[in-house]
Amino acid sequence: MNDSAITTKHGLALFDLTGKQALVTGSSQGIGLSLARGMANAGASVLLNGRDTAKLEKAAESLTQEGFSVNTMVCDVTDHAAVADAVNAAEKNVGPIDILVNNAGMQHRTPLQDFDPVMFEKLLQTNISSVFNVGQAVAKHMITRGAGKIINIASVQTALARPGIAPYTATKGAVGNLTKGMATDWAQYGLQVNAIAPGYFDTPLNAALVADPEFTAWLEKRTPAGRWGQLEELTGACIFLASAASSFVNGHTLFVDGAISASL
Ligand code: NDP
Predict the structure, then answer these.
(1) Domain 3-256 falls in which CATH fold?
(2) 253: which of 106, 173, 195, 246 fits an S-S bond (Cβ 3.0–4.6 Å)?
(3) pTM > 0.85: yes or no
(4) Residue from 24, 27, 29, 160 whose mutation best tests the ligand 1 pocket (most atoms within 8 A of CB)
């Protein structure tokens, strides 16, 4: 973000994303699709990503119907070479990527003593290598332009563990630290790299928890806000970190979790 962009914007204009393009990985459903919709509402054109072409096209169609400018980029974010090709093609054919949200991720629940090493590796690839793969491919273009916003989707597990998800916890801890590393290497080129750490939200990734009344009872008691988060409640943090409003916020992880991580 160059200095003139900051000094010429005031008030709500600081949060305006008009003219910006945002790539959101894993945006055919859940948090990614919701964040894409939120940034589109703030003026951005959005580039949706996922592996399943049909699911992605359906998501794109839903945003197009709402009047937004949408493109798609089908690729597996765990494949370093495929990601570089897809990002380079998008930069050439669709336009510069001003905002990247590294959102694609997965969960697998099993007690650690029984955890399948193949699933452990898959979690590492999907939740942390992907952030490196897409972050590096997009940052190369952002560095050339001297500006760019990267938002990595961390988790309340960036700070806290829960039974049965130790490898997920490890990957999300790493997302928090890779965010600091990216900011440290790339702030000098005008990039801001931050993370959002969501608490518990009702998405397909959490379907097993949503279907379990015991879990919901536990969550409502454990969360000072007393409830699940609603997807739209992540939008404000995302627009803030994607816009000129956060021009000197760098390497930070913003928890959006109803105060779970603030309390015992
Ligand atoms: P969902 O399972 O609902 O959606 C995941 C999305 O990622 C899908 O669009 C999926 O599409 C895509 N995806 C998965 N793997 C890949 C891949 N290898 N390459 C490209 N796209 C991929 O997840 P959520 O919306 O719940 O979660 C999104 C992010 O938020 C994750 O990083 C998750 O860890 C994090 N998070 C979620 C919380 C929650 O409460 N839901 C809480 C804290 C963090 P496709 O299958 O077509 O590839």
Answers:
(1) Rossmann fold (3.40.50)
(2) 195
(3) yes
(4) 29
